[in-house]
Amino acid sequence: MLAVGLALLTGVGLSLLASRFEVPALVLFLGFGMLIGSDVLGWVYFDDAVLAERLGSVALAVILFEGGLRTRWSQARSILAPSLSLATVGVILSALILGVFMYLVLDLDFGYALLIASIVGSTDAAAVFAVLAGTQLPRRLATLLEVESASNDPMAIFLTTVLLELLLAGQVQPGAAALLLVKQFGLGLLVGVVLGRLGGRLLNLLRADTSYPYLLLTLGVGLTTFGLTYILGGSGFLAVYVAGLQISERLKVYRTTVLRFHEGVAWVFQVLMFVLLGLLVFPSRLPGVTLQGLAVAAALMFLARPLAVWLSTLPWKFSRQERLMIGWTGLRGAVPIVLATFPLAAGLEGSDFIFNVVFFVVLTSALIQGGTLSTVARWLRLEADLPAVPAEVLEFTPVGQTNADMLSFQVTKESPLLGKVLGEVPLPAGATVSALVRGERIVAPRGNTRFEEGDHVYILVQHEDLDTVRELMEGPAGEPAEDRQPQESPPGQAGSPPTAAAAEAPEEGEVAAAPRTGEE
User: Per CATH, the architecture of 393-474+508-520 is what?
Assistant: First the structure.
């Protein structure tokens, strides 16, 4: 427990340090694990590849589940086809291109070359999510990268498993390989959709005065989804991400609280996972693979990944700048390192060399690609005015055992309400704006009160009207704020100065106004 506590405290300091110097936090976490390991300070000796693979898989599942919760299915649906193409065709092409390069240039055995290329073939969700949170990429592009990174693990696992079996046994049955691929993808999608929808329905049926049951239920659904899919032989990683997507689309009450809770849990697991994987590395062995590691990393970043992205996205209209950005955001992280433990755990000859090369590639990718992502986005002129990962500004809180919920909402610069007058907002008849907090002052909401950026609005709403109110607050589902075009309004409508009629007493079905406080 002392070691875990110290690791978390160190993780806080390293996260702040990473933000200060714009370095991916995973690099510092891995470095800390290497520092306290047996090769440097010698505080902790750890070389159990099997345990590292199991703990790393669980941690990655928690991180992927949080990523799914944070991504709206209505947004992911519009870019699902190119994302899946990148996650399947892109991974295969990347592995083939990189494998041929290592075979021809580095003179590696072709089977080993393909195995290493397959291990580093998938982008890492934990690394991509962490880096995108601090960027200003267009929402559509960021969602594409998130969905790709969360769904390309099954293909990488499939290729790694088949090639490892081939190297160990000398042969592989084509039928068994095809069945493995179908089970990985099929069961992952099926279990994720079913349990995700069931979990979302249970969350909305639950009526509790505190958020704790909602937090435990979502975490329980995520872990159950991963465990059940793993037992059935499917991709637990794909299943938990899909389950998170399904719950995210249905989660209404305590949404912000649930997301913040899982963000914290995912951060804890991310720290522990990268520190653990850092412990598994022996720095004294890395100089022996420096040249090979640099060559593989360079070929992956500048040849295999860009070419695979270009070929796998040909059917869709992406600009040259967008394709370059997608290619550069192919960060490698925990997934390749976890996959690199498979040969170690299986006792494959040369597995130490494979693990060290993969670790070198991950470290290089995180430092170079992760550290320059914002710079490349600016260079390609792909920066948006809004964060790539939007902040949650809606929160529904059940009101006792009634059929009503209290909605708390913050008006941001991407909000459809910004600049509108309260009396012009078509709220449902049973909804009442109870209060509006502006800075340190409480403003009594009236029909002519105009919404400003930073306002905190509190609305009492019937449970059956939650979706209607959410769309009014956030805009149409699946339509990012940067894609919404302002509409011209006639006098007296939204966006124009309030008229005398707007200041009159509200009619039936309009929002009830509180007494005047002197500020409008």
Answer: 2-Layer Sandwich (3.30)
Among 349, 457, 445, 370, smallest CA distance to 406 is for: 457
Measure the CA–CA gap between 393 and 454, rounded to whole angstroms: 10
Residues 64-89, mean pLDDT to the nearest whole number: 83
| Mean pLDDT calculated for residue range 273-291 | 86
Burial 289-304 (b: 16+ CB within 10 A, else e): beebbebbbebbbeeb
The pLDDT mean for the chain works out to 79
Q: Which CATH number fits domain 2-379: 1.20.1530.20, 3.90.1280.10, 2.30.30.100, 3.30.750.24?
A: 1.20.1530.20
- 294 by DSSP, 3-state: which? helix
Q: For residue 311, what pLDDT is reported?
A: 95
Where helices occur in 152-235 by DSSP H, the ranges are 153-169, 174-205, 212-232
**Distances in whole angstroms, Cα of residue 326 to Cα of each of 135, 297, 359:** 14, 17, 22
Asked whether the beta carbons of 387 and 393 are under 8 A apart, the reply is no
Higher per-residue confidence, 71 vs 502: 71
- The verdict on pTM exceeding 0.85 is no
Instruction: Compute the half-sphere exposure of residue 273: CA atoms within 13 Å on the CB side of its CA.
Output: 27
Helix (H), strand (E) counts: the chain: 21, 5
Q: CATH 3.30.70.1450 residue ranges in the chain?
A: 393-474+508-520
Residue range(s) of every CATH 1.20.1530.20 domain in the chain:
2-379
What angle do the packed helices 290-299 and 351-365 form, to 10 degrees?
50
Ranges 43-47, 55-59, 85-89, 453-457, most confident: 85-89
Position of tokens 């928690």?
62
| Angle 99-361-166 from CA coordinates, rounded to 5° | 40
Find tokens 């997301």 and name the residue. Answer: 259
* CA 46 from centroid of its chain's CA atoms: 29
Structure tokens at 300: 């992956």
CB atoms inside a 10 Å sphere around CB 225:
30
Report whether 282 contacts 256 (CB < 8 A): no
Nearest to 221 by CA among 238, 190, 199, 205: 199
Residue 228 makes CB contacts below 8 A (sequence gap 6+) with 191, 195, 239
Alpha-carbon distance 352 to 350, whole Å?
5
Query: How many CB atoms lie under 10 A from the CB of residue 6?
Result: 12
